[in-house]
Amino acid sequence: MRDFVYQNSTRVIFGKGRISELSQQIPAEERILLVAGGGSIKENGVYSQVREALEGRTVIEYWGIEPNPDISRILPALELVARERTTFLLAVGGGSVVDATKCLALLACNPSAVETLFGRGGKFTDALPLGVVLTAPGTGSEMNSMAAISNRATTQKLVISAPSCQPQFAILDPEVTYSLPPRQWANGIVDAYVHVLEQYLTYEVGGILSNRMAEAVLLAIRECAPKVMQEPHNYEACANLMWCSTLALNGLVGAGVPQDWSTHYIGHELTAIFGIDHARTLAAVLPAMLHARFQSKTDKLLQYGSRILGITAGTDEERARQAIEDTRKFFESLGVPTRLTQYGLTEESIPRVVANLKAARRIRLGERLDITLDQVAAIVKNAL
User: Fold this and answer.
1) What pLDDT is stored for residue 297 in this prediction?
2) Domain limits for position 89
3) What's the per-residue H, E or C state across the chain?
């Protein structure tokens, strides 16, 4: 098992009606900027709960954060923070709103980083304090210090990370997920599932507990996913999936073990260039990546197939290949396509993906840094 340092300072307030406790999480003297998306929180009642909980507080609002948050929507909020002398940021929404708020928190205290952010030269130290009221599970951003930000004008997408943008708290009320459309639930489930697999399907280093925790999350997701897709008001299914999504990327299941993330890096470029939902890029790329790296991942695929999928018959190769295809079938059972041609991509699309990775200086991917850009091209081709 590898050495590691693990610290997670986010306070999680989980359960029905817990938004009412919001005022207890933010000091009374703070000037709050509420960051939100397109208005769904007004339709599902979350906005009214938040405003009621913050009655009497100084609250400024900033709306319009879109899925796959773009820097062009964050910069106007930066001006608002300065003008209103904001001292605390509150993200009310899903992962995109949380990621945008984290970026805003960092840029507000590091204004010189605005010019260098997408040039990979930004240096982040301090950040404005922030909290989260989560409305859509999947990204796990509510309990980590990372954020994925896009620049559509330059077809770039990058992950920024700094301890200072770790949310101070996250309120998770499973009942607010009842209004999520099936596509959003499916995306969140795939995102969380692949988060775990990128930390699990690597190679063995004796991380017994981390492996078992990852397997617990995977099993819970598979058990609850069909329930929530068929019964969107099934509280226990929604609650368990919400918690699974948080645990999938709060650093716990990856402690002491190798991590891959090649599927995510390729997927980020597919989103940046072609606008495909993040989770849907993962569902298409992951099976192709696993087939391409079959030899180095066979042992963990066999473990995954046996412990999670119940695959016990056949040769080692047959069982490992079946584990990949059963994973593809799981994604498809959620209504998520697993071929890039279903999004209109062709072989002519591949050079753009490779060029973006090269420009971002991601020329070696994978847990062993053994995936070259030529191999990336082959993986994307096999994902078509």
Assistant:
1) 98
2) 11-175
3) CCCCCCCCCCEEEECCCHHHHHHHHCCCCCEEEEECCCCHHHHCCHHHHHHHHCCCCEEEEECCCCCCCEHHHHHHHHHHHHHHCCCEEEEEECHHHHHHHHHHHHHHHCHHHHCCHHHCCCCCCCCCCEEEEECCCCCCHHHCCEEEEEEHHHCEEEEEECHHHCCCEEEECHHHHHHCCHHHHHHHHHHHHHHHHHHHCCCCCCCHHHHHHHHHHHHHHHHHHHHHHHCCCCHHHHHHHHHHHHHHCCCCCCCCCCCCCHHHHHHHHHHHHHCCCHHHHHHHHHHHHHHHCHHHHHHHHHHHHHHCCCCCCCCHHHHHHHHHHHHHHHHHHCCCCCCHHHHCCCHHHHHHHHHHHHHCCCCCECCCCCECHHHHHHHHHHHC
Q: What does each C-alpha distance from 350 to 248, 262, 264, 300 come to in angstroms?
A: 30, 16, 16, 29
Give the per-residue pLDDT at 120.
60
Amino acid at 356: N
What's the pTM value of the predicted model, to 2 decimals? 0.96
Question: How far is Cα 251 from Cα 5, in angstroms, rounded to an integer?
Answer: 10
Give the pLDDT confidence of 332-375 residue by residue, as tens digits.
999 999 999 999 999 999 999 999 999 988 999 999 999 999 99
Beta bridge partners of 371: 365
CB 305 within 8 A of CB 322: yes
At residue 308's C-alpha, the angle toward residues 182 and 208, to 5°, is 120
In a domain, 1, yes or no: no
Domain boundary among 175, 195, 216: 175
Confidence of residue 111 (pLDDT cuts 50, 70, 90): confident
Residues 80 and 222 in one domain: no
Say which CATH number the domain at 313 has.
1.20.1090.10
Question: In the beta sheet, which residues pair with residue 205?
Answer: none
96 and 205 belong to one structural domain: no
| Type of residue found at 59 | V
Quote the tokens at residue 276. 């495909």
Tell which of 127, 156, 175 closes a domain.
175
